[in-house]
Amino acid sequence: MMLRRWIITLLAALVALVTIAPLLWMLSVSFMAPGEASGFPPPLFPANPGLDNYRTLFGSFGIGRFLANSLLVSTLATGLALLFTVPAGYAFAKLRFRGRDATFRLLVAALVVPGQIGMLPLFLELKAMGLVNSYAGALVPWLAGIFGIFLVRQYCLSIPDEMLEAARIDGASEGQILRRIVLPILTPIVVTLALFVFLSSWNDFMWPLIILADQDLYTLPVALAAMSRQHVQDNELMMAGAVVTTLPVLILFLSLQRFYLSGLLAGSVKG
Amino acid sequence: MTGLRRTEEARAGWAMTGPALAAILVFFVLPAAASLFLSFTDFDIYALADIGNLRFVGLQNYQRLVENPLFWKAMTNTLLFVAIGTPFVVLLSLFAAMLVNSRWLRWRPVWRVALFAPYVTTLVATAVVWRYLLHTRYGLVNYLLSLFGIAPIDWLGSPTASLPAILLFVGWKTFGYNMIIFLAALQTVPRELDEAARIDGAGWLARLRHVTLPAIAPTVLLVSVLTVAAMFQLFAEPYVMTQGGPAQSTVTILYFMYEEGFKWWNLGSGAAVAFLLFLCILAVTLVQLRLAKRGGAI
């Protein structure tokens, strides 16, 4: 039994090591001197670890600008998504109004349609609205988050009706009930949803690539992809760029993983 | 009193769902429906400049696509990604989930987070990392293979290796997500059932086949439906790692749509590609559901 414990644990450790090895190597190579990583066998650790690549990135490449863009777009996307989807999710679960169930069934059906199907017409639509090549254009898809409505609705179903009825008898308006009674209960799922939207909008690539033409507006993934096409040989520099792009979300996930993993199950298995 | 409250409740219901529904209508439903309409027009760079140049062309876009060898190449590549990638990712995720679910495992949460981590990383960033890992001369992958006496493979430069190379990356990036879903399902399989089979002398493989798999069959279906949809939507991977090459061996449907629409500005033709992609995903999902129903999984 003891032996079995160690064998299984060792196997898991090995699989985990292989899984995170690319990320560790990315970090290690980002501290190497230019050209150091282009050798055989590939060096695992930098001979003289230094921050030169990061200096180049923030200096001559101006990656700070893209970092700020990504922070701005993801923060706004998160705020707007919450503003639009949380009240809707609650209303679909708990408020009685005509057409509610029929509308909700239509939303369920719409989930089958991948967002990319409408990308070309959406581009034309935003062009007509004058939103192409603007942050507003990049934010638009996050307003229409059906998944968020589902997640919040699922969570709201467990709120007892008596609680809401009692507040109504006390004379609270529907808006007050949402703000003072429901929102505090919803905190865990709101954190989860905020985390989902922030990570997805940070990592999103295809839509910002299409809608943001001006280089000054690029988010990190778009800027990194453009850079990687020009600097195929500068491995150390590209690894540093990858670290700057992915480390913020990785840290955010690690510090809030409990919310993330529980929300993932609520969204995919029960939903 | 109650009547009044009812009216207020209904009004609040529409007020709270209204903004979200309006956004979904304008930015999701309308564009998706317009895609079909757009695919029957010759919307191109001239129509972009002056809408007066727009003409209704019926099925011409579809006819041109059918005659376009690159479209068929993109279609075949994508179907290969779906056909090879789906079982690969599902098996990988199931293996990881069973390992992490093992009752003899210590420090379970640590391994679970480590295996999930690639999923939350930025796709473009890790694609850049993997492009380097798979480098013919300096890449770690070929170095490890060389330890076993295997000659260097030109992963991203040869038309036969490029597709498996991208699948390797996609598998690494996504298996953690499916693993979490499988883990939840595995935890509902009663330990006693497994124990009883063991006492009856059933081996590891027999228990997997007759106890575990039947119990988690609906989850296997769910994960494969999700994976098929994801495989149909590969775009950033070839964009960053191979730019569709070599010899167009990694041009996917979405990559083809992107180039049609935003490189050549053939928006009518691009919309036709988008609509065909939607039909493909729908068809494969329906077939999966039908097969599952016949097999008794749901």
Notes on the structure:
The complex is a heterodimer of chains A (271) and B (298). With 271 residues, chain A is mostly helical. Helix content of chain A is 74%, strand content 0%. The two termini of chain A are 39 Å apart. The mean pLDDT of chain A is 92. With 298 residues, chain B is an all-alpha fold. Chain B has one domain: MetI-like fold, CATH 1.10.3720.10. In chain B, 75% of the residues lie in helices and 0% in strands. Chain B is built from 13 helices and no strands. Chain B starts with a helix and ends with a helix. At the A-B interface, helix 1, helix 3, helix 4, helix 5 and helix 6 of A face helix 1, helix 4, helix 5, helix 6 and helix 8 of B.
Brief overview:
The complex is a heterodimer of chains A (271) and B (298). Chain A has 271 residues and is mainly alpha-helical.
For the biggest sheet of chain B, the summary is: none
**Under the CATH scheme, which architecture of chain A would be assigned?**
Orthogonal Bundle
Mean pLDDT across every amino acid position of chain B: 92
Give the largest interface.
A-B, 99 and 96 residues
Task: Name the CATH class of chain B.
Answer: Mainly Alpha
Query: Would you count the extended β strands of chain B for me?
Result: 0
Query: What would the average pLDDT of chain A be, to the nearest integer?
Result: 92
Secondary structural class of chain B: mainly alpha
The overall number of domains of chain A is 1
Gyration radius from CA atoms of chain A, angstroms: 23 Å
Ranges of chain B with pLDDT <50 over ≥5 residues? none
Give the overall silhouette of chain B. Answer: globular
Portion in strands of chain B: under 5%
Helix-strand topology string of chain B: HHHHHHHHHHHHH
Report the CATH C-level class of chain A: Mainly Alpha
